[in-house]
Amino acid sequence: MGAEGEGAVEEATGFEVCIVLPKLSRAAATGPTEDCVARLVRELEGAGLLVERVRGVPAEFIKLAAPMGTLGRAAADMQMKKLTYIGMELQFRWDQVAAFVRQPDGSLFSWRERYCCFRYLIYGIVNKTNSEIALKFDGKEFHWKQSESLLTMLEAEGVVKRIFPLHDEIKRKQLLRNWALNWLDFTWQPIDEIYSYFGTKIATYFAFLGMYTRWLFFPAVFGLTTQLIDFGSLQWLVLPAFLIFVISWAVFFLQFWKRKNSALLARWGINCSLSEYKNLGIELSSLSDSLTVEEKKFCDVSAEKSKLQRNEWFGVLLRIRNYGIIMLAIICLQLPFELAYAHLYEIAETEVMRYLLTAVYLVAIQYYTRIGGKVSVNLIKYENNQGEESSSASLVYKAFGLYFMQSYIGLFYHASLYRDILSLRQVLIQRLIVYQVLENLIENSIPYLKYSYKKYIAIHKKKRGKGSTVGRSVRLSTRVEKEYLKPSYTASIGAELEDGLFDDFLELTLQFGMIMMFACAFPLIFCFAALNNVTELRADALKLLVMLKRPVPRAAATIGAWLNIFQFLVVMAICTNCLLLVCLYDVEGKWRIEPGLAAILIMEHALLLIKFGFSHFVPEEPAWVRANRVRYVAQAQNVCSKQLLRNISKFQGKLD
């Protein structure tokens, strides 16, 4: 094999991808027409994959594994870009494997890169003959056309039901033991192992959740102190001081998260991308082309510029229209519903009725907001967004607008109408407790109920097929059968643009908004949030490792649009808490207009200054990350300059 694969062959690969086929309703008949499953297996083996067929109760499964050499050649054929040891992302070459940076666990490819190679290999099986090939399955016959992907054709014919990634049992059990079931350290997480197993996006979410939970203990302790200690004559200063502390805490938390995120990406070899080199105006792959295409005229450039400007402003108008539709739906449909709930809540006679009303409301509003989310997904299809990341951000903003109204309008209504801080605290407690308990119950019970129902249906069909005379029990005997019946990790509004992290991040932002915007009304609310997040860490880990299929890896290196929403909620918190402090409460809990609007306006402007000023005190990336980035850019400039000079010399030589 040579030097190209000495390090790579040491990596053992298990079965990582599964193709699901329906069970045959009749025995396969012999004849001149080839069975499509047998042909698929032969083609997969011809592509260098390791194949294992499993005949289960609900379906038939083809499990796939790949030697590292097969993945390496696929990555080279895909022209995959990987980070090298000089800090540049270059096209992968299997014969130069030693030049490319390895993953934290020592493997050559990340989980997302391996999954992309698998999909490239299985969808790259095409009919290279000069004629159509007749195939049959379960008595049906169809034709595999020239240059057609075999797997695409089988999906269209209903032969291939699903393709999904498989759990690695050894790594899954290690994560289960060391992470999900490890309650000794409430917030510790093996982030590098999570990244290696689930990919960048999920690892980034858990890193953010862990850091957010740890930082919550600071305002939780301060809030608990304000409730337990009587400050006497200085009591009127407690809430303003608490507000200043909370705003400063939020600003520093978000800034330190940016630092942590950049450090994680640097450790995973993701932060150094070609974007730095593109900013230099130099592309290695286009150096020669830029010198040999001198015949391009300025009129072509002007025409392209005009076209891009038209598309840009047309996309802006489409987004404005879609945001207008969402806002109209909120005002005309959701706002009356929210106000009706707030009114019914106030006229309820007992606390039991209020808790029941809140539970019914939260269940009903889930369906409304999911409908709104699906409408948002359809609207985004007509926007001129640049790539999947831009479309996902647009969806996040629209959906959060719906949930923002759902979560806070009742609280705003109660605070403005009754102006009773003690009553507002009761509403906050009920909202937080009922919402978090109900959300966790739905989040963790529905996947199990779906799995149990699918398992029952599969076993029941198998029993009916065997007949009533058979006394043996039917059960799922293989791991792949159980994984197939588990629900996928998808967003509640649909899987087109987002995975299940959409709901998890949405839950965090709604909680963050509630504890921040009403911090002065109930400082103890941070304690509830901290306790909830400690359990959320382990519950989400168990959900991913036990209750759901292994998620498809997605290429997201940051929390994206959610960070903008967190920063927006900090500004909202400044405004709402200053309004609360306009009416300081007296001994009886009633608010009164003191010490005056002037003092509150001064405090509001001071907090805004803290918010935007403190953001610049903490650098967004550690010094070692910044130093590496500068060094990598300098190396890239050096390499690009040498290549450019060589091409200029060649070009000048041709002119001479």
What does this entry look like structurally?
Keywords: Membrane, Transmembrane, Transmembrane helix. It is found in: Membrane. Pfam families: Anoctamin. With 656 residues, the chain is α+β, with helices and mostly antiparallel strands. The protein has 3 domains: 17-166, no CATH class; 173-272 and 307-462 and 497-621, no CATH class; 624-655. It is built from 20 helices and 11 strands. It has helices spanning 36-46, 68-77, 111-123, 150-156, 169-180, 191-198, 200-228, 238-267, 275-278, 287-292, 298-347, 351-380, 387-418, 421-466, 479-485, 501-517, 525-547, 561-582, 597-614, 623-655, and strands spanning 17-21, 34-35, 50-55, 60-65, 81-83, 89-91, 133-137, 140-144, 162-165, 583-585, 591-593. The chain has a 4-stranded antiparallel β-sheet, with helices on both faces. The chain has a 3-stranded mixed β-sheet with strand order 2-7-8. The chain starts with 16 loop residues before the first strand and ends with a helix. The relative contact order is 0.12. Mean pLDDT is 78; it is low at 1-12 and 272-299.
Helix content: 55-70%
What portion of the residues fall into strands of 2 or more residues?
A: 5-15%
Weakly predicted, low-confidence segments: 1-12, 272-299
Number of domains: 3
> Which term fits the overall shape?
globular
Instruction: Please give the largest β-sheet.
Output: 4 strands, antiparallel
Helix segment tally: 20
Structural class: alpha+beta
Q: What gap, in angstroms, lies between the N and C termini?
A: 45 Å
InterPro entries: Anoctamin, Anoctamin_TM
Keywords: Membrane, Transmembrane, Transmembrane helix
Membrane topology: Multi-pass membrane protein
Protein name: Starch branching enzyme interacting protein-1
